[in-house]
Amino acid sequence: LKQTELTRNVSHELRSPLARLRVALELVRRKTGELTELDRIETETERLDNLIGRILEFSRLDADQAGVIAAIDLEDLVQSVIDDVRYEYRDLGSDARITFRVDTPCTINGNASSLRSCVENVLRNAMQHNPNEGDVQVRLGTDAEDVLISIEDQAGGVADDELTKIFEPFYRSRTTRTDHAQRSGGLGLAIAARAIALHDGTITASNTDRGLRVDIRLPAQIP
């Protein structure tokens, strides 16, 4: 608990110098005009700000789980996340498509905020690594006694020995290290794994013929 609080406080403190850095960057631009070096500084500043946001999100998970537990319609939750991510990537000019298939409508008890964070991070990870014209397939259904959410991309997958490591904080696969598309500061899938663990579920990755498939399993519950 103390470590979580420390992480949260440090992350908040880093936001202030970042804000001042942005102001200073804008002032320099007014004096010198557009420079390639300034664009680079802005890009790295945005990446740092995004990483701080991810760290804060990761540290909030335990606190959020102690919050409101309610019945969640997973079809509505997943569809909402898909709509947001579609809008985001359409704005970035991507032609990649997201298809959503519902085999079984599912309602569970849980924390909507942390579950939404999980699905969003996995889906964004898939979109970041997917070819521009590739499809990302999302499926909702049941598997034995579990609710199953599967997200599959066409990005070629990862090495077999990395299928569990990619859920560790700040781990980057060997493919990602040489790829211009950055995983979410190495925390996106770790945030997803923590959120699912707090719901007594599991999250696993496997390689397919086309790419990586992430399976999110949650205990089926009657609200």
Q: Any chance you could write out the topology, listing elements then pairs?
A:
Layout: H1 2-32, H2 36-65, E1 70-73, H3 74-91, E2 97-102, E3 107-110, H4 112-129, E4 135-143, E5 146-152, H5 174-177, H6 188-197, E6 202-207, E7 212-219
Parallel strand pairs: 2-4
Antiparallel strand pairs: 1-3, 4-5, 5-7, 6-7
Helix pairs in contact: 1-2, 2-6, 3-4, 4-6
Radius of gyration based on Cα positions:
19 Å
What is the string of SSEs from the N terminus onward?
HHEHEEHEEHHEE
| Secondary structure tally: strands | 7
Low-confidence stretches: 177-185
Large-scale geometry: globular
Cross-sheet strand order for the largest sheet: 2-4-5-7-6
User: Sheet bearing the most strands, described?
Assistant: 5 strands, mixed
Counted by DSSP, the helix tally is: 6
* Secondary-structure content class: alpha+beta
What proportion of the residues is helical, as a percent range?
Answer: 40-55%
**Mean pLDDT across every amino acid position:** 82
Q: Span from first to last CA?
A: 30 Å
Query: Beta fraction of the residues?
Result: 15-25%
**What is the assembly state of the chains in this entry?**
single chain
